[in-house]
Amino acid sequence: MKTAGIPDRVVPMKVIVCGVQRTGTLSMRYALYQLGIHDCYHMHDVFENPSTDGPLWTRALKAKYAGGDPLLKEDWDRLLGNYQAVCDVPPAFFGPELAEIYPDAKVVILNRDPEKWYVSVLNSIHSKRTIFDQLALLFCLTFNPDTRAWLSFGMTMFKYGWPFDHRTEKKKAIAWYKDIYKEFRERIPAERRVEFSVGEGWKPLCDFLELPVPKIRDPETGKLVEAPFPHLNDRFAFHADNAQTQAAWMETAVNNAWAFVGKATLVGVASFGGYLLWKSRLGGRF
């Protein structure tokens, strides 16, 4: 169903990057930006808009993996209408579907060695959370609706998108990785897609997209030279970005807490929450 006042699509969908988490998706996002493709939807966008985007992604995941009501083109346009490209999860779960919905978009299969991918995910998304991380999450869940929206979406994504424990079920994780790339290649016509990894640099990507390689001016010679291909979001950068997001959530939670409860009550709630957490040894992947 269309929403009044919201156009079907603000900008055309130009590039669909079929690449799951930790395959160089953030580097691709910045590379596409340098090529004039604005903007590229990424997991970061769900982080920033969990209350608006999370429910639509939740519905899409349930439709694909649990027989729920599928998203119509109008729904996808409402979610992605301001973006000329998509990459990372959750969009990667729907690479073939998005390729069908947007037949004029070019498709990039973003590759990484499965073993290296597994280790990268293990050291980032699935790294162990400290007791302080868990306490902070409990506090944010209590006082920040965006955190609750994010957790609701995240639980759905783990249930349907990754139905295994990445930390302990390596064979299942790698099998999932290979299967989703098999689906990309089986369902998306070969003439619409290119195989690519961020280590290849600009040329194969620009050749496929029919765009010129970005140039920058050399500060020493003053000549135009090929711009370096972006390489972002290594393990340390991932944790730094995560900490920044959590800090923003915490700031909102603290402001909300002070707005609704007094100082003494706040201290009591935090103390009691910490006690319950200690008693239950709350753990998990969020």
CATH structural fold name: Rossmann fold
Radius of gyration: 21 Å
Q: In total, how many domains does the architecture comprise?
A: 1
* Major beta-sheet overview: 5 strands, parallel
The CATH homologous superfamily is called: P-loop containing nucleotide triphosphate hydrolases
CATH class: Alpha Beta
| Low-confidence regions | 1-6, 280-286
- Count of separate DSSP helical elements: 12
Protein name: NAD dependent epimerase/dehydratase
InterPro entries: P-loop_NTPase (IPR027417), Sulfotransfer_4 (IPR040632)
Structural notes for this entry:
This is NAD dependent epimerase/dehydratase. Pfam families: Sulfotransfer_4. The protein has helices at residues 25-34, 43-48, 50-66, 73-80, 95-101, 114-122, 131-143, 145-161, 170-187, 202-209, 235-260, 263-280, and strands at residues 15-18, 40-41, 85-86, 106-110, 193-196, 215-217, 224-226. It has 286 residues and is of the alpha/beta class. It has one domain (15-280): P-loop containing nucleotide triphosphate hydrolases (Rossmann fold), CATH 3.40.50.300. It has a five-stranded parallel sheet, sandwiched between helices. The protein has a two-stranded antiparallel ribbon with strand order 6-7. It is globular, with a radius of gyration of 21 Å. It starts with 14 loop residues before the first strand and ends in a 6-residue tail after the last helix. Mean pLDDT is 87; it is low at 1-6 and 280-286.
